[in-house]
């Protein structure tokens, strides 16, 4: 659960945002077929921007950041 607590934290959101931007920049810089990398980078960037965690439902946890944090702190 520590992994999800990190992802739901402010530091986790920043990390996801930075990773998303890095993937987008790398995909654009490499060009050619690497544009797919830029498209993949949109997912962590959107997750950080709109405060949701794509991996949480895999552990039967809420998708949204506020509800995820509430559930993790309730335990």
UniProtKB/TrEMBL annotation:
Keyword Transmembrane: yes
Keyword Transmembrane helix assigned: yes
Database matches in Pfam families: YgaP-like_TM
Source organism, top-level taxon: Bacteria
Annotated keywords: Membrane, Transmembrane, Transmembrane helix
Transmembrane segments: 17-37
Domain Inner membrane protein YgaP-like transmembrane residue range list: 11-59
Name of this chain's protein: DUF2892 domain-containing protein
Organism of origin: Actinocrinis puniceicyclus
């Amino acid at each position: 659960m520590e992994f999800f607590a990190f992802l739901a934290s402010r530091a986790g959101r920043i990390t996801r945002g930075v990773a998303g931007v890095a993937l987008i920049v790398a995909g654009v810089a490499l060009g050619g077929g690497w544009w797919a990398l830029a498209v993949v980078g949109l997912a962590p960037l959107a997750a950080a921007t709109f405060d949701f965690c794509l991996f949480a439902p895999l552990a039967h946890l809420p998708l949204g950041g506020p509800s995820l944090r509430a559930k993790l702190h309730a335990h």
